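Support request, please re-run this one:
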Amino acid sequence: MQSPPHGGSRRRPASGAMPAPGDRNGATGRGLTVTRPDLIVDGSDAEFRHLVYALLTVSIRFDRLREQIGRVMGLSGLQYHILMVIEELSGERDVNVGAVAEALHVSSAYITMETAKLVRLGTLVKRPNPRDRRGVLLSLTARGRRAVRLSEPWLREINDVLFASLDREDFQHFRRIMEGMVDGSAQALAIAERVMADGDEGNTV
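Re-run finished. Output below.
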C-alpha cells in the first residue's frame, strides 16, 4: 500500500511495466503509491495516503475492541467473534465450519482449530452433519449463549459510538464500499504474496 522505504529496491508493478517518470507526486517528487486517477488529487497521492493511515488505525482499534470484549469472557477476540457468527447464522440454517470461515474470511482449518478450543471451554458443541458424514454442525451451549447475551449491552454502546458519524444513507453507502474492499483486499493480498514469493534474496532494505 505504500512505497518501499528510502533505499529499498523497487519491484515491477503487477502489469509488468516499470514505473514511469510521471508516476510521482507533483509537489514533492516522491513516488506515487497509487496510479488510479480517481485516487490522485492535484497530482498528489497525499489524500490517499491519509485514507490508508486512517483505515490502518481503525483496523487496529477494531482488533483491540474485539480482544477486549473477548477477554472479559475468558476468550480470544477471534473466539468471541466465532460465537457471535454462529449465534447469528444458527437462526437461518445449520452452521458448519465452512459457513463460519466464509463469514470471517479465514480458512476452514483455522476455524476448525479455534472451534475445538471453544468445545473444550464448554461454549460450543459439535454434532455430526446428517447430510454429510464427513462434516460437523456447530451450535452454542447454554454457556456460549449466555456469553453472547452478556456482551450485547457493551456491544451496543461501543457500536453506537463507533458509527456515530454515519446517518442511514452514509451507512448504506459505507456498507457497499466495505463489501467491495473485502474483495479488493483479498486480491491485493494475493499480489503481495506473489511478490514475496518471487522476490530475490538480495531484495532487502
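Residues 37-183 form a domain with the Arc Repressor Mutant, subunit A fold (CATH 1.10.10.10). Strands lie at 124-129, 132-140.
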